[in-house]
Every structure is written in structure tokens, then in C-alpha cells.
Specification:
The chain folds into 2 domains: 157 residues, no CATH class; 140 residues, no CATH class. Helices cover 70% and strands 6% of the residues. It has 8 helices and 3 strands.
Length: 320
Amino acid sequence: MKKREWLIVIFPLLVTWLFDRVTKLWAADITAVKSYGPLHFVLHHNHGAMLGLFSDLPSVLRIVSLSTGGAFLLCTYALIQYLLPIKSLTLRTGLSILIGGILGNVADRIAWGYVVDFIVVGTPSLSSPAFNIADALQWVGYGLIVLAIIREGELLWPENNSRKKFWVNLSFQLKYCILMMAVGLSLTLISLVFSYTYLRVTITELVGSNQFLLNKFLVPYVITFTIICIAFCMITFAVGKVLSHRIAGPIYAFERYINGIFAGENARVFKVRKGDEFKELEQLAAEISKRLAVIKSERTVNVVEFSDSGSDPDTKAQNE
């Protein structure tokens, strides 16, 4: 996409995050319930995830894991935006709004250890859980994503497309994916050893060899890090799958192009997909097509000359 289009895509993320921050700063001053029909504003501190999920987890595991999860989703968002094969501003805008809402809540957890919720919809007998603008806008993002998939799904998964399967060259792509996953796993293991050792030594120097405190902080840390490590490996494998497809795909298409020529088919226009590697294959295919056209033209001229002479070259040689 062009720079202007990238700005259009990123802008909703920033607007969502800023709008959420402003409304939460306003909500922090709420001291009593404010009601406007079925809409109520009441300050509530959510120590869990969306709508209070996971609020019963230990604080260390909850705050660190949810905050880190938000950062992880931000990186995933950047990868998805980069790897998406179509422009689809609806889909990309939906992703931006969704991540903007998630980051709004992540910022709360990092700064305060909880999320500020202040909106309740309903009546005293039937009402929704408390939520905030970030939560509401996340559902807007989900809606835009679903709408884009329904309307533009054929662009993501074309029907008449022999390359719609990502496993174009299974052997090569698996090696590529496993290599990327191995590199990612190695880096995370190095980070785990360093951070775990550093944290353990720090706690020991502060409180001594208190096994209860060590377990209280280190066990949730290891659990969280393991989950992140597994998710990271899955992401690197998926990214490797997409990137390897962009390498194997053009080679596969060029192979089909050459096989078609060998089979006697007319040389078609060869195009590399947007985002694929080996763009130079287009020029090579064009040169091949041009050369084949010249050869075909020369053969046609020779046939015409032989026809005009009234005999083929072998007969003419015998007569002489």
C-alpha cells in the first residue's frame, strides 16, 4: 500500500486509544452514579480482562500476563497488516480499531494495575457488566473484520486459484517454517534463562532464601513465559508459512509456465503476485515469450517460402 493508505489504516488505532484515554480520565472523577435513561456511568476498577474475565488470578500472573499479551497482540497486528495480501481498508481499519481498544486497556494495567470501567447499560433488574469505550470499540473492530471477510473473502481465498493452498512446496516450506520457529524458540529460551535467573537472584537478595516468596513470584512468571513462548512459536511458524509461500509460489507458477510451453501451449502472460518474491521472473518470462514468438514467426516464413516454391527442400535437391 501507499504511505497515505498506511496512515489511513494506523489513524483509527491512535484515535481509538486517545479517545479511550480521555474518557477514562473523565471517568476517574466520577464519585456517584450518573444515569441517563438506560445508560449509567459508575466508576469500577476491573482487575481482570474484558468484562472482568480472569480477575481471580494472582495479581502477578494477571497483570504481567495480560499486559504482555497486549504487547504480543500489537506485534501480531503489525505482522498481519504487513502480510495481508489485499488492501481492504475495511479489514485493516477493523484490525486497527480492535488493537487500539486492546492497547487502551493494556495501558491501564501497566499504569495502575487495573482497567477503568465506567459504563453500564440496562435497568436495576437487568444490566450489562461494566465496560469502557475501549471494550465497546473492540466490538466495532470485530464487526468490521467480519464484514470485510464476508464482502471480500474471495480476495483472501480466491476460488479459481491453484495457489490458494499455502503448501505449494511442502518440503521447502516446512523446513523454512521449522527454521524460523527454531530461531524464535532459541531466542525465547535465552530470554527465559536470563530473566528467570535475574529475577530469582534479585528476590533472594531482597528477602533471602524464602521458598514461599520465590514460588509466589517465580511460578507464575514461568507459567506466563511458557504460554508466551508457545504462542510466539506458533506465530513464527505461521509467518514462516506465509513468507515461504511468497518464495515458493512464484517458482511454482514459473514452473507451470515452462511446463505449459513444453506441452505446446501458447505462451501466456506471466505475472508474479503482489507481495511475492522473484519479480524478475516476469521479465524473464516476457523475454522467453518474445523469443518464442520470433522463432514461431521465422518458421512461418520458411513454410510460406517452401509453399511458394511448389516443392519442399528435399524434392528440390533431388531434382537438381
